[in-house]
UniProtKB/TrEMBL annotation:
Naturally occurring in which organism (per UniProt): Fagus sylvatica
Annotated family: Belongs to the cyclophilin-type PPIase family.
Protein name: Peptidyl-prolyl cis-trans isomerase
Residue intervals passing through the bilayer: 21-45
This enzyme's EC code(s): 5.2.1.8
Lineage of origin: Eukaryota, Viridiplantae, Streptophyta, Embryophyta, Tracheophyta
Record key words, sorted: Isomerase, Membrane, Rotamase, Transmembrane, Transmembrane helix
Length: 240
C-alpha cells in the first residue's frame, strides 16, 4: 500500500474543514447597523406623517397666522350662517366667492365662539344695527347724518337692506364687528365690506331695530347674539 505524503495529508485536511464561523462581534455589529437603518426609516415616516397632519390642520384652522380656509377650497367652505339672537334666528348667505377672505375670518370667529354674547352696541332705525363696540366708523350721529345727507343728494344706493358687513378698518385686527343694514345705504363702501345678506329672519332684524335707544343710539336694554353656527347648505329654511 502506497504511503501518503505529509503535504497531501495537509491538503486533504484543509478540504474537509467546514465553513468558517462568523464571530459574535461581527454579528452584533451587523444587527446594530440593521437596527439603525430601521429606526431611521421609522423616524422619517413619523416626521413625514406629522408634517402632513400639521399642514391639514393649518388649512382647516386659521386666523392666528392664516385665515380660516386659507388652504381650503372655496367650495368646501360653509355657505350659510345662523345668528341666534335674543329676538330669534337670523339666517345669512355668505358671499364666499365675492369676499372669501372676510368670509374665512367670519367663519373662524364663529367657530371659536367669538360672537357668543356679542351685544348690539348701536341700533339706528331705518339705517343699520351694529354688533360689537368698534368706534372707527365714528359716532352714531355722524353715521345717520351722513346717510340722510346722501339720501337727499339722490346717491344711488350700493348697499341694500338686510346686507351683512364688517368695518374695513378691522379686517386686519383681532376683532370682528357685524353690521346689518335695515334700509338701502348710499355708498358706504369706503367703510364697510359686505360679505353676506339676510335670507331669513328679516322680521327679527326689524324687531331688533325697534328697541328703545338713548340719544347715542345705544339700546337701553341689552340685546345680543347667543350663538353663531355655520352650515354648508341652507338647512335652516324651516327654522324659526
Amino acid at each position: 500500500m502506497a504511503r501518503i505524503k505529509p503535504q497531501a495529508l495537509l491538503l486533504q485536511s484543509k478540504k474537509k474543514k467546514g465553513p468558517t464561523r462568523i464571530g459574535a462581534s461581527t454579528l452584533i455589529l451587523c444587527n446594530l447597523v440593521v437596527a439603525l437603518i430601521v429606526l431611521s426609516l421609522i423616524a422619517t415616516y413619523r416626521n413625514w406623517s406629522k408634517r402632513s397632519i400639521d399642514q391639514t390642520e393649518d388649512g382647516l384652522s386659521t386666523f392666528e397666522g392664516s385665515d380660516f380656509g386659507a388652504f381650503v377650497k372655496k367650495d368646501d367652505l360653509p355657505g350659510y350662517a345662523i345668528l341666534n339672537t335674543a329676538k330669534g334666528h337670523i339666517t345669512v348667505e355668505l358671499y364666499k366667492e365675492g369676499s372669501p377672505e372676510i368670509v374665512n375670518r367670519f367663519l373662524d370667529f364663529c367657530k371659536k365662539g367669538y360672537f357668543k354674547g356679542m351685544l348690539f352696541s348701536h341700533v339706528i332705525k331705518n339705517y343699520v344695527i351694529q354688533g360689537g363696540d368698534y368706534q372707527g366708523l365714528g359716532a352714531a350721529e355722524d353715521l345717520i347724518s351722513n346717510g340722510k345727507l346722501q339720501l337727499q343728494l339722490g346717491t344711488s344706493p350700493k348697499h341694500e337692506a338686510f346686507m351683512l358687513g364688517t368695518s374695513k378698518t378691522k379686517e386686519d385686527s383681532k376683532g370682528f364687528d357685524l353690521f346689518i343694514t335695515t334700509a338701502p345705504i348710499p355708498d358706504l363702501d369706503d367703510k364697510l365690506s359686505v360679505f353676506g345678506r339676510v335670507i331669513k329672519g328679516e322680521d327679527v332684524v326689524q324687531e331688533i331695530e325697534e328697541v328703545d335707544t338713548d340719544e347715542h343710539y345705544r339700546p337701553k336694554s341689552s340685546i345680543g347674539i347667543h350663538q353663531c353656527d355655520s352650515e354648508k347648505s341652507n338647512l335652516s329654511a324651516n327654522r324659526s
